[in-house]
């Protein structure tokens, strides 16, 4: 069963989340020839404080 985990910052609308799910499912169908009824898409909302780039948190990078 294909599994996709999408991580986004909080604030996305329900409609935006539905579009992400639809897009991920379409990608799996068109590229991997998977049955859309067997795809599993999870959207996690993650605060920016828990994201990082180059070994530093985004919150720390924003502060300068």
Automatic annotation (TrEMBL):
Pfam families hit by this protein: Tautomerase
Domain of life according to the entry: Bacteria
Keywords: Isomerase
E.C. no: 5.3.2.-
Residues annotated as domain 4-oxalocrotonate tautomerase-like: 2-61
Class in the EC hierarchy, top level: isomerase
Family in the record: Belongs to the 4-oxalocrotonate tautomerase family.
Protein name: Tautomerase
Lineage of the organism: Bacteria, Pseudomonadati, Pseudomonadota, Alphaproteobacteria, Caulobacterales
